[in-house]
Amino acid sequence: MITIFGSENSPYSKKVHSYARYKNIPHEWKTDIRRGQTQKEYQEVAKLPLVPAIRTISGEGMQDSTPIMEYLDQQYPNAISTRLPSNELNFISVLLEEFGDEWANKWMFHFRWHRAIDQRIVSLRLAKEMLGDNGTEEALVQMSDQIRRRMSGRGFAVGSNRVTAPMIERSFKAGVEQLERHLSTRPYLFGKRPCWGDFGIGCQIYQALIDPTAGEHLVNHAPRVVQWCTAVMVGSRVLHVSSDEWETWETLAPTLLPFVTEQVGELFLAWSNANSQCIVSKKNECVVELPTGYGTWTNKVGGPQKYQHKSLQMLRKKYKVYKTKGLDDILKQSKCYDVLNANSHGTSQSKL
Q1: HEC sequence for 141-155
Q2: Given this model, what pLDDT does residue 77 score?
Q3: pLDDT (average), residues 130-149
């Protein structure tokens, strides 16, 4: 049995937790990491004060949701699979999982800490989770205020600022509308079962759903997206698997390709590539021209963006593993090819 240390208010924690539940992997789920024995256990496995963290079967510690999911796939090969039937679909799923971690997280984090109503409600929720049932009302209010003051000034972590705020909100609303259209004829992104892409994006949108501002938009405008991300986070198992559980790219493309093109290719990868070039050249500011209607994205480059640079390098390595002519055709259609086929300096390796 593994132990998962996390938070009900952390999209990455819930991604790992729901993934383990979906695959029916024996585990303990612990959220009281600031209290008693659980705090001690958490500190033994967490190199950084972040969640999620897990204690593996051998007793070692792991952090970072994507490597944890890879570990679960390797450790439990007989558990229900989230692999798709082709290299092309598998990589698009991996790409969407990374999009969830690095761009859909901008949606969630921005809405969560940009407005006073969201700040107050979420900080109270976090304080309650940290204190448990033993905290007094005075302690709850005090801790909530401390969390709000700290987190409301951390928009820089996702590049949210006065210039980029309307771009993030526009992307969120457009992306949700595109997903709503795609999910109108299928329960999950690639068919009748969830895959990596579902967990990567679904965990971020579910956290947006439980917050006031983004949640109101989702409830009023995207009922299918609400149903989908809730099913993903519950970790509902698919009991009856049929031969047509996964669709082909031909049936997915009419509604999934617009999402991948605008949200992943034109926004996420365009920004990620510009960010990586800034990290390599040691620039302090990332400036990239986004598609018509969005404008010029500008954000300061700091610690969080260094991790996102590493994330893009890992995505490029995975692309080489899955690379086929069919996949390249899809990536060219969706404006993802040039960034994924570039080196760490953002220079294209294509001979075309």
Answers
A1: HHHHHHHHHHHCCCH
A2: 93
A3: 93
